[in-house]
Specification:
By secondary structure, the chain is of the alpha/beta class. It is built from ten helices and twelve strands. It folds into two domains: 164 residues, Rossmann fold; 155 residues, Response regulator (Rossmann fold).
Amino acid sequence: MKRRKRMVAAVLGGMATVALVASATGSGARPDFKMAFVTDIGSLQDKSFNQLGNEGRLRVQEQLDIPTRVYVTNKAEDRLPNLLAAASAGYDLIVANGFFMAEHLDVVAPRYPNQRFVGVDVTKFLLPSNPKNYTGVVFSEQEGGYLVGYLAALTAQRQGGKQVISAVGANAVPAIVKYISGYIQGAKAANPKIKVIANYANDPTFSDQAKCKKVALRQIALGSQAVFQVAGGCGLGALSAAKEKKVWGIGVDADQSYLGAHMLTSATKKVDRAVAKVTRLDYVYRLTGQVDRLYNVKNGGVGYGKVSSKVPAEDIAKLNAAKKKIASGQTKIKPVIKF
């Protein structure tokens, strides 16, 4: 637990102060190129993080006409064996999905210096060995969180009643912490009277919907008018609670508006685009390691999905104005705040 807390502190601290860049060298696509994608726990059909990453794999497989493979991580103990299996199978590029892959990437990447490794949500600062063949993919989740928090607070203000909204996280991993931190800041910016309840379901599997539903129901009982799920497959339980109690639900990573009319919007994180992009870059140029690639509002890496038709045009205009201020740098959002 102490090790995990140190890892969280390192990534949040590093990302708050360091400019993240992308780099590639060399040229010439290779006809024998092949790519592997290693999921984290939480299911390949989590309708969120893992599913998006795999969609990116499938897209680039078709676009480049290259062989790819997905290695599904069913439990925490599968992370290292899956990475080793992909590396030993000779895949030129191995993309590992999720913060908890960090310590395993730090072991595997140096052993296979002629292959490239990418960690989604794993900044290079989490790999003490600093391997030359490693590239991190990181997102400004706080910006997406800010936008949906902004809209949720405007909606609560328009509806009247208790000025309360909430967020349900699975665990205190950096991406989730940043999402919720941004959500709170956006809500306060739109509606200073709003109260934001934020709780963790403490679900290490990221798939226990009952845990997230229980937390969401408790938040709704305290007056929450909108529940933001930041918990992968577990979070589907929170959105189920929102539907059941007839309050707004807010999705995460993927656009989850298809879940029903109770969905206000979703904080989107283009994991699929990032996976496809780094694969194309490595295919053509061969990625240079020891850098992070940053995805944010400005470059379209994070944002918000479809907005409910019940939201008035006036509020959507305010939301778009807030988005433009983030993209221009006029609005600065802290990646982590106390909550």
